């Protein structure tokens, strides 16, 4: 299985950024965990992070015909981006939404997720482990 793991704005600042909410581990540590998890499961993975909405849209479009599934933490774009929602719908790949924090117990403006409308599952509040769960879920369901 070929998997795309997409991370949105400010996730490159993990370890520095609000550690009480997002933890002290860094973005490179997250990438390593994702790569190690995929290697164990025999999943081929590409991990990509961008602070720019259009870059994330481009990456989702490029997954069409090239990837089998997507794990996405759209970060702040979760709550604003119809463009990312539409891109996920356009490629129609199985997708899982991940959030490090428990967004449902946070600000009102974080209660809306556009992206969720194109995802078959949402995992939140588990920190880095949420990515592991998302990868395992997709591998169990779609790995041939
Ligand atoms: C986040 C939650 C979002 O509300 C926030 O804007 C982020 C990170 C999370 O992983 O918990 O940047 O997606």
UniProtKB/TrEMBL annotation:
Q: Which residues form the signal peptide?
A: none
Specify the pathway: Metabolic intermediate biosynthesis; chorismate biosynthesis; chorismate from D-erythrose 4-phosphate and phosphoenolpyruvate: step 3/7
Q: Which organism is it from?
A: Flintibacter faecis
Q: Name one GO biological process term.
A: quinate catabolic process
Subunit architecture: Homododecamer.
Q: Where is the active site?
A: 22 (proton acceptor), 99 (proton donor)
What does the record give as the reaction this protein catalyses? 3-dehydroquinate = 3-dehydroshikimate + H2O
So what EC number does this one have?
A: 4.2.1.10
Q: Which GO terms describe its molecular function?
A: 3-dehydroquinate dehydratase activity
Q: Which UniProt keywords apply?
A: Amino-acid biosynthesis, Aromatic amino acid biosynthesis, Lyase
Q: Could you confirm whether the keyword Lyase appears in this record?
A: yes
Protein name, entry field: 3-dehydroquinate dehydratase
Q: What does this protein do?
A: Catalyzes a trans-dehydration via an enolate intermediate.
Note the Gene3D superfamilies from the entry: Dehydroquinase, class II
- Positions contributing to substrate binding: 73, 79, 86, 100-101, 110
Q: Which family does it belong to?
A: Belongs to the type-II 3-dehydroquinase family.
Reading the lineage from the top rank, the first entry is Bacteria
**Site annotation Transition state stabilizer: residues:** 17
């Amino acid at each position: 299985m070929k998997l795309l793991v997409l991370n949105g704005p400010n996730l490159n600042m993990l370890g520095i950024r609000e550690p009480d909410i997002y933890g002290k581990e860094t973005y490179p540590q997250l990438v390593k965990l994702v790569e190690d998890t995929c290697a164990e499961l025999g999943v081929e993975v590409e991990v990509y992070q961008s602070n720019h909405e259009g870059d994330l849209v481009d990456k989702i479009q490029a997954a069409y015909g090239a990837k089998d599934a997507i794990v996405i933490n759209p970060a702040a774009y979760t709550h604003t981006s119809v463009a990312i929602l539409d891109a996920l719908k356009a490629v129609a790949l199985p997708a899982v939404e991940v959030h490090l924090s428990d967004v449902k117990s946070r600000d009102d403006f974080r209660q809306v997720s556009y992206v969720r409308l194109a995802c078959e599952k949402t995992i939140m509040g588990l920190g880095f482990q949420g990515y592991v769960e998302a990868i395992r879920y997709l591998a169990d369901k779609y790995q041939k």
